[in-house]
């Protein structure tokens, strides 16, 4: 079939042609937006899940919903080596710029931007030379005495409160979207929780929508004990069979192409229902199929190509980031996971079992484990256990020499 008409999109954060299986999350966020618009108390939102389940795609879709309701929005991608000051300043600058044309008092906008500029400038080192000092692209005078104490928790609370006040003036809200939220530095994640706590008590129209790996709730709980009640948590998992079939069949139907039922059976078996894999196998199958309907033989012919692409771009790139000691640790995890489950689905394994399999003391393996967690290759959902952040990663490792 014509590869130009191939509808599938196996890209990082790239919206698939059919956003299947996420209606519940979209409906929940619609309720959140409506409740905030009516002055009702509402919690910020946190999405968690493995790599490849579509968290970033969903985060972008939720942002589109907020924009559709004329909210001011901004988005950042957290990094473990970067303070929140600069990215949050840039994101809220964008959000308020979206609200500014509808505000009746330009001076009120300028006052907030002056506070925002003061907040952003505190990211500069006090002893930095003038040429090394970062300047935010905010063309108003700095307004001192607000959000510029240097204490990120105090400053973030004041900044969010002022941003919410601007949104209240316009009769709408502000939403800050944070991807890879588990990578926010510890002091900053604590400050973020405190700011969300303050906003929830005030009923202010500013919400945070975060997305991250499965251990994100534990990260938030370690920062502030009340965080488990502060956010509405939604786990984003693989698609069920109906949704996976819809993700494949609906785009094909728009191109006047059909699948045989057994072809969809095989595609679900291969992909496991993980959205990224659904798109990868769908794309390869389309390119190999000579005509409609697509058959199981077409899927079998295309599967090696899809698997080769995943091995390089999805699995291999992550494997290459690990040191030899870290790779040894992950191989032991993969072997133990298969032995416990007896199939290709990876499960959490005990760190003590990993140490036993490698003939090492658990304490001696802590550096490798901690480095893998920091690199986002594994996570610890429960104390004393570890699991892969990437679905089917254990299966990939078990195929490597």
Written account of the structure:
- Keywords: Heme, Iron, Metal-binding.
- Residues 168-334 form the Cytochrome c domain.
- Residues 1-20 are annotated as: Disordered.
- One of its GO terms (molecular function) is heme binding.
- Strand 7 (378-379) and strand 8 form a beta hairpin.
- This protein has 16 helices and 8 strands.
- Helix 4 runs antiparallel to helix 5 and helix 10 crosses helix 11.
- Strands 2-3-4-1-5 form a 5-stranded parallel β-sheet, sandwiched between helices. Strands 6-8-7 form a 3-stranded antiparallel β-sheet.
- It is an alpha/beta fold.
- The two termini are 36 Å apart.
- It folds into 3 domains: 23-235, 3-Layer(aba) Sandwich (Rossmann fold), CATH 3.40.50; 241-318; 323-399, Winged helix-like DNA-binding domain superfamily/Winged helix DNA-binding domain (Arc Repressor Mutant, subunit A, Orthogonal Bundle), CATH 1.10.10.10.
